[in-house]
Specification:
Blueprint: H1 3-8, E1 17-22, H2 32-42, E2 49-52, H3 63-73, E3 78-83, H4 89-101, E4 106-110, H5 128-138, E5 142-147, H6 158-170, E6 173-180, H7 184-196, E7 203-207, H8 213-222, H9 229-238, H10 242-263, E8 267-271, H11 277-289
Parallel strand pairs: 1-2, 1-8, 2-3, 3-4, 4-5, 5-6, 6-7, 7-8
Amino acid sequence: MRLREIYEDKKTGAFPKISFEVFPPKGGEEHYPALYEELNILKKYNPALVSLTWGAGGKNNNSMELVRALRQDLKLDVMAHFTCICNSREMVEKHIKEIESFGIENVLALRGDEPQDIDVCHTDFRYANELVEFIKSKTDLSVGVAGYPEGHIEAESLDADIENLKRKLNSGGEAVFTQLFFDNDKFFSYVELVRKKGIEVPVIPGIMPIISYKQVEKMTSVAKISVPEMLRENLEKYKDNPDDMKKFGIDYATSQCEELIKSGVCGLHFYTLNKSYSTSKILDNILTAV
């Protein structure tokens, strides 16, 4: 099922479509079974999509084999990532053919994070809109793109970043999956600005359950992600108590999701960090509340 069909499908009820993001485990195939175990737990929530990242710094980490396994062995609807970083036109075209042979209909096109050693990482694509355009010129795959509720960290302004988003969508993007955020007002304002720019495609909020103080510190150091004062106070309160921090993270994300659902979002995209526990607890909470 293609992205627009997934997020415009009203037949399955009002509850937003659920999707999960995972990444290729470090260490390769010997660590795949642990990921399969986590995904088998999450399968009971009937995800519309499981999004598989390309790998940090443009390193593929054999993710095409993992894409195949998730699709054909675990019977999941996979959205494979493509990045500009460390990718040539020939490599993208090769992977498109593989994706299609697996029976996959959706991909996510991103610029990707700059690798530390850029001298050994050739790329034919500088920006995500160029990658989207190339993919659409070679295939009829449905292409999702990234959105940034507080602006990309390298963008001059939020308005400039939304203009970049328009370029990606005008090149063939069909849905927007946002970077994680901790302040729902930032997401609501973003959607309002996006709509004022004439963008009408589905915008799916990205949710990452908090599991540690270090995790939040890392994310906010590499991306524009605001931390509300109440959240900051609780991060300090629970920073030395992992169990209480995880419970607080579940409760906080549950509240986020409940408010987003009330606002009428068409989907919730969970950044799982390859773990099922927090995400499954959040979904149990919100499904009980519905």
